[in-house]
Amino acid sequence: MDDLARTLHSTRVATKLTAIEALARMRHPRASQALLRALDDEDAAVRRAAVAAFGRPGTRSAAEAIGALSTSDPDERVQRLAAAMRRRHRWPVGAER
After folding, report:
1. Among 65, 68, 71, which Cα is nearest to 37's?
2. Burial 44-54, CB ≥16 within 10 A → b, else e
3. CB burial class (10 A; 0-12, 13-18, 19+) of residue 35?
4. Is the whole-model pTM more than 0.70?
């Protein structure tokens, strides 16, 4: 799991996306922590994948961060996906990050 978490520091977006998919399947607290860090990635595709990864099982550990992304992410697609996940799971809108 630690190796997968480290791949989130890759310069290749495709590598990060593959790691997010694998971490999302693990449903382990350390995997969730790595996915939380991916919510702050500089690439919007990585942030969208991380939002989607948390939205699948309805993981509440990311509720605040995803709520914040729904209103403050610079990428409109990330905002829309985060808002959809927030509504789907009835998570509150988070504070500005």
Report:
1. 65
2. bbbbbbbbbbb
3. buried
4. yes
Express each pLDDT in 63-72 by its tens digit: 888 989 999 9
CA distance 51 to 78: 8
Which pLDDT band, with edges at 50, 70 and 90, does 57 fall under? Answer: low
How many C-beta atoms surround the C-beta of residue 77 within 10 A? 13
In a 10 Å sphere around its CB, with 0-12 CB exposed, 13-18 middle and 19+ buried, how is residue 36 labelled?
A: middle
As a whole number, the mean pLDDT across the chain is 88
- For the chain, report the end-to-end CA distance as a whole number of angstroms: 27
Q: Where is pLDDT greater, at 34 or 93?
A: 34
Provide the residue type at 81 as one letter.
Answer: L
Hey, what are 44's tokens?
């919007």
Residue written as token pair 């310069």: 11
CA distances from residue 59 to 4, 75, 95 in whole angstroms, order as listed: 19, 22, 18
